TrEMBL record:
One of its GO terms (biological process) is transmembrane transport. It is found in: Cell membrane. InterPro entries: MetI-like (IPR000515), MetI-like_sf (IPR035906), UgpAE/MalFG_permease (IPR050809). The chain crosses the membrane at residues 29-51, 89-109, 121-142, 323-344, 365-383, 423-444. Residues 85-443 form the ABC transmembrane type-1 domain. It is a multi-pass membrane protein. Belongs to the binding-protein-dependent transport system permease family. Keywords: Cell membrane, Membrane, Transmembrane, Transmembrane helix, Transport. It comes from Streptomyces albiflavescens. This is ABC transporter permease.
Length: 452
């Protein structure tokens, strides 16, 4: 009787199933209500622009005439677009590989550093700098003027330390004052000089403040009698501060030109060379009889070394990639460091007990175990470099903009930067989307696989 009463009191199965369906339906409605704002934004900011760009790519520049696939055909005939594709390929191959390698090396090394957290913070800080600000920073750092660009200042300092630099890049001789300029930029005496004679080599075009330290007043070479086997002379600044003096003559107010190389030339060959003293004086000893030309080599007047043209056509893309590495190395290091912290330590300790050195452990245990993390970092960076725009647009100067252009900048230039052809620009956008999608799909599948 009790069983009968319980059976009568329990709800029929049909009512239970209907109640469950209503509960599921209500749950879907509530979930959809919460998701709807996000879906609305996704549709407005992603889906609609993608569909509009695909449709717009089949119309001409005005957007009124349907041209089919003409924009896609023109896209691959345009030399600028082909150069953008080439530069994008360079970015995809070089930047992610370098960043992944640097991130791996730094993540492994940071584990052995006492102040690891501070070191990671310093490397990650560039991520807080916007691409606009980073582009301005590196545009200044790459400036060709050594007085502005820090990289060229370092390069010039190293160059001058090993090879030296000319002290008189602006010096020149007065016309008709006994010196003739050669085709190579050197200056030689117009009249031949013989042993026992003296020569005065007057130059202008040098500001007194630019004279080397230690320069002393010049003395006329004739004031000292030359021996029968020597030629004496003086190189001096033929300019008297405040006016006065006589051209072609050494006045007591005029300075000598120290550290200037002087050569004695006979029959086109250099037979003797020397360097001027602090007062500009020099002498050649042990000369045989005959006529000589006293020459100031072109090295005395060589323009100063200006460094490397970092933003020239040949180096602009590697230079921009360098700026990108500065920003993203910390990102790669932190992600790989997180994967490194999750590695099973027993495998590493077992390898050490078996006698493996640190390089063998790194190559045969650490890198293989980090394979999934390295792949995710690499693919994420591939997606990112395909969309790089800010750095290229800001760092590359106008004359070399085309040499540094990538697909994202080319799309903007064609659409809004003077081309005003949004049909062709939309086709470039679709091409960029098609290139990014495979990497995105691979990354999503990899992420789902790791979640399982």
């Amino acid at each position: 009787m009790t069983a009968t009463l319980l059976k009568e009191a329990s709800p029929p199965p049909v009512a239970m199933a209907d109640r469950r369906r209503r509960a599921r339906r209500r749950g879907r409605v509530i979930a959809l209500a919460f998701v709807f704002p996000a879906l609305l934004l996704l549709g407005a900011l992603v889906v609609y622009p993608v569909l509009f760009s695909v449709g717009r790519s089949f119309f001409d520049a005005s957007g009124t005439r349907f041209v089919g696939g003409d924009n896609y055909t023109e896209m691959f005939r345009d030399p600028a677009t082909l150069k953008a594709v080439r530069n994008t390929a360079i970015w995809v191959v070089v930047a992610p590989a370098l960043l992944t390698g640097l991130g791996l090396i730094l993540a492994v090394l940071v584990e052995k550093v006492r102040w690891a957290t501070a070191f990671k913070l310093l490397l990650f800080m560039p991520m807080a700098v916007s691409f606009l600000a980073a582009g301005i920073i590196f545009r200044l750092a790459y400036d060709e003027d050594p007085d502005k660009g820090v990289l060229n200042a370092a390069v010039v300092s190293v160059h001058d330390a090993f090879k030296g630099t000319s002290s008189y890049p602006t010096a020149r001789a007065r016309d008709g004052q006994g010196l003739t300029k050669g085709a190579d930029g050197s200056y030689g005496t117009t009249a031949a000089a013989s042993p026992g004679h003296t020569v005065d080599l007057g130059l202008v075009g040098i500001l007194p403040k630019d004279l080397p330290q230690g320069a002393r007043p010049a003395y006329p070479a004739a004031a000292q009698q030359a021996a029968v086997d020597e030629i004496r002379g003086v190189a001096y600044l033929d300019f008297t501060r405040g006016g006065g003096g006589q051209q072609g003559k050494v006045d007591r107010q005029e300075s000598g030109l120290p550290e200037m190389k002087v050569e004695a030339v006979r029959d086109g060959k250099t037979v003797a060379s020397t360097t001027t003293a602090d007062d500009g004086s020099f002498r050649f000893q042990g000369l045989g009889s005959g006529s000589y030309t006293v020459r100031l080599p072109a090295s005395n007047f060589a323009p100063p070394y200006q460094g490397v043209s970092w933003l020239g056509p040949a180096l602009v893309t590697p230079a921009i990639i360098g700026a990108y590495l500065w920003i993203w190395t910390g990102f790669a290091m932190v992600l790989i460091g997180a994967g490194l912290a999750a590695l099973p330590r027993d495998a590493l300790e077992a390898a050490r007990i078996d006698g493996a050195n640190e390089w063998q452990i790194f190559r045969r245990i650490t890198v293989p175990l980090l394979g999934p993390v390295l792949t995710v970092v690499f693919v994420t960076l591939v997606i990112n470099v395909m969309k790089v725009f800010d750095l290229v647009y800001i760092i590359a100067p106008g004359p070399v903009q085309e040499d540094a252009t990538v697909l994202a900048t080319q799309m903007w230039l064609v659409s809004f930067g003077g081309g005003n052809n949004q049909g062709l620009g939309s086709a470039l956008g679709v091409l960029l989307l098609l290139l990014v999608i495979p990497a995105m799909v691979f990354n999503v599948r990899r992420f789902r696989g790791s979640q399982r």
